[in-house]
Amino acid sequence: MGDKVSDFLLQRLSQWGVKRIFGYPGDGINGILGGLERNLDLFEFVQVRHEEMAAFMACAHTKFTDEVGVCLATSGPGAIHLLNGLYDAKMDHRPVVAIVGQAATTAIGGNYQQEVDLISLFKDVAGEYVYMASSPVQIRQLVDRAMRIATAERTVTCIIIPKDVQEMDAVEQPPHTANTVHTGLGYSTPRGVPTEADLKRAADILNAGKKVAILVGIGAKHAADEVIQVADLLGCGVAKALLGKQVLPDDLPFVTGTIGLLGTKPSYDMMMGCDTLLMIGSTFPYGQFLPKEGQARGVQIDIDGRNLSLRYPMELNLIGDSTETLRALIPYLERKIDRSWREKIEADYHEWWKVIEARSMESADPLNPQRVFWELSQRLHENIILSGDAGTATNWYGNTIKMRRGMMGSLSGSLATMGPAVPYAIAAKFAYPDRIPIALTGDGAMQMNGLAAMLTVKKYWKNWSDPRLIFMVLNNRDLNQVTWEMRIEAGNPKLPATQDLPDFPYANYADSLGLKGIRVDRPEDVGAAWDAALSADRPVLFEAYVSGDITTIPPHISFEEAKNYASALLKGDPNEGGIVKESIKSVFEGIVPHKHG
Ligand SMILES: Cc1ncc(C[n+]2csc(CCOP(=O)(O)OP(=O)(O)O)c2C)c(N)n1
Ligand SMILES: [Mg+2]
């Protein structure tokens, strides 16, 4: 018996270098599942609990490995479930190929069981390339183009294969005749650089600046050494967008940490005080944390022209690979003699960590969440991979975690969806079984999809050479990030009907699955709890039973926000007493003396 379409589909994906597929079965892809069984040696199939998790894992796979991520779901409901994870990949510019089933070609158009108009459904998220096969001859071109376009455009593509087509005889080579397409394998990433004239113009602007600020995003991921060298020549500091937190370690004295609402004050001050901005590989969205228009001369480097002059009107917009462009730029840069701007940045940054430490040590009832991150930060090393979630955990990840060289860290940057931290950590473990992924998440996200994903961990953890994988959940019984946004941005008190979450015994639940549950609710126990988690003989669900009354304090507090904050309290927030006691303490601990200091 010859190969079926499904066999060839999988073999072609394998020829493209795909080794792992994240997915969930359904009869719309029965043919492909049969193909997986016949080609067991080609792939590792990771079975998730919900298709959204397969898409998140495919996204995380590409974020952590730079390879294309692949996910597989059945027609109709399975395909629909993928969407949020696919948007996460699209919006963070990562290559993911989604493969989904469809009703048989003989049934399409008949309002058939599970027949959804998938081309329309995926037209936005996979708009660069979404096609359905109606003939076995198409399979080669569909795979080749979906893989190549996803890689070249750093985006999501989708192949839809009706169930009868999956079972047809494969056609590996289209006939040499009219109406056929003859595609091939392979993609080599170019490393483009701007023209020499533009590099000189960039150098002129940067050499003329007296107070240069650099902002890097994840696009500078492979340019750490070059960014360090440029920052040294320009005598400046480097701030990081949240998704780019892994680009540079935080123990370099001139790195000012993250930027934005959950960023540091030194990043904020550097941007407000600079006369020249160099932005590399970032689409950081919040313009209010960048210099005022006209305040600074700007140079931006990005691989994608669409990202240029998007957040700040730049004087010079350069399309290029960040590493190669910086390498080509360096010979034109003059080392700044006056180092006072940089020295001030370094001194501010040094002071800032004292503020963070003091805030982390503040007491709370029962536990200050920042303390949990502070203690973790002391224990991080190059083998650790962090993942964050939409929620307060990511605020503390942003401003309290010190990245070390070699570490990786990611989250849903532009979509900022709840739910990715857990699947990202699981996908990281599959990609790097010898490293220790740590998901940093909230109880809302854990209840949304993380609890079910613990079953996926239960299913696989014994296969991993090093079983350490940690899921830290901030149990604050609240959708706390939004509760604080309501208070600070809108001046509204907490509305228990929308914000309160049910309590849940996370650690006990982990124990019941044969994983390790650790629960901590006293500050003095946090360090030892992290030590236990980091040396456990199995995956750990680390439940931090924390107060929800402590907010992340923005690096600056505007008058408006302060006013809203006060008015929320006056309106009788149910947590009023706790907030006044705990959070205000923290405000005065850091911001106020620091601001005037
Ligand atoms: C899918 C999705 N739904 C809703 C939101 C809005 N949102 C952002 S953070 C947040 C609260 C998260 O709560 P939790 O996971 O408990 O973390 P906490 O902030 O309490 O630490 C919500 C509802 C979102 N970003 N994504
Ligand atoms: Mg919560």
Which features would summarize this protein structure in a list?
22 helices, 6-stranded parallel β-sheet, binds thiamine diphosphate, single chain, globular, Rossmann fold, binds magnesium ion, 597 residues, alpha/beta, 15% strand, 18 strands
Q: Could you characterize the architecture of this molecule?
A:
The protein is an alpha/beta fold. The protein has 3 domains: 5-166, Thiamin diphosphate (ThDP)-binding fold, Pyr/PP domains (Rossmann fold); 196-344, Rossmann fold, CATH 3.40.50; 362-591, Rossmann fold (3-Layer(aba) Sandwich). Helices cover 42% and strands 15% of the residues. It has helices at residues 5-15, 30-38, 51-65, 77-91, 118-121, 139-153, 163-166, 196-208, 224-234, 265-273, 322-329, 340-361, 369-378, 392-400, 421-431, 443-460, 480-490, 496-499, 506-512, 523-534, 559-570, 576-596; strands spanning 20-23, 44-47, 69-73, 96-102, 130-132, 156-162, 212-216, 237-240, 255-258, 276-280, 297-302, 316-319, 384-388, 408-410, 436-442, 470-475, 516-520, 540-545. The strands form 3 sheets. It has a 6-stranded parallel sheet with strand order 2-1-3-4-6-5, sandwiched between helices. A 6-stranded parallel sheet has the order 9-8-7-10-11-12, sandwiched between helices. Mean pLDDT is 94; it is low at 588-597. The structure holds thiamine diphosphate and magnesium ion. The site of thiamine diphosphate has 18 residues, from helix 14, helix 16 and helix 17.
Poorly predicted residue ranges? 588-597
The number of E-state strands comes to: 18
Question: How is the CATH topology of the largest domain named?
Answer: Rossmann fold
Helix percentage: 40-55%
- What's the story with the biggest beta sheet? 6 strands, parallel
Strand fraction band? 15-25%
**Order of strands in the sheet with most strands:** 2-1-3-4-6-5
Small ligands present: thiamine diphosphate, magnesium ion
CATH homolog superfamily of the largest domain: Thiamin diphosphate (ThDP)-binding fold, Pyr/PP domains
**What structural class is derived from the secondary structure elements?**
alpha/beta
CATH top level of the largest domain is Alpha Beta
Euclidean distance between termini CA atoms: 79 Å
What is the total domain count? 3
Mean pLDDT: 94
Tally of individual helices = 22
